[in-house]
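Pasting as-is:
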Amino acid sequence: MPVHFSGPQVRHRYTILAIYVIVLWGASNAFLYYSWRISNAGEPAIVTSSLTSIGSDTYFSLDTINAQIVSQTTSAIIIHSPQDGTITITGWAVDKQANTTARTVFLIINGTLDVPTLYGGDRPDVAAALGNPHFEYSGFIATFSSSILPKGHYTISLKIVALNGPYFYYEQNVAYFILE
């Protein structure tokens, strides 16, 4: 199901602009833009190294990698770097303890590279499936240039930042991809 970024609950005001910036400007510059935009939107930039893990007891799903449905694959998803050019990852996550949406989500590539997502996408399917209307705006998307990664095998983990306090849920190795 596609992630739609619309409605009054969207946390990031310039979602579509940010996606174009990431695709057209390149991932490394987009990370700088993303941090700048959060700081200038009245929210402090999140420094993931200052957060404390509270385990992995929350609800989440990593739905697609480059439009390939993760749950329908039995092995790593293959990404052809020259043809694809960008990597787009979508999913949803919530803060189970707060019983509402999280503050934001980061993708962790191979345990070392924190990739920010655009969080707050409209996911009425998640709210309906989990029976909680507070989970409706729990979608995320991250798009970055495949050129920032060398060819190889990669794992994706999630840091789901809790709504209140400097805490995060850590969901380790939720998906795999191979960059060729």
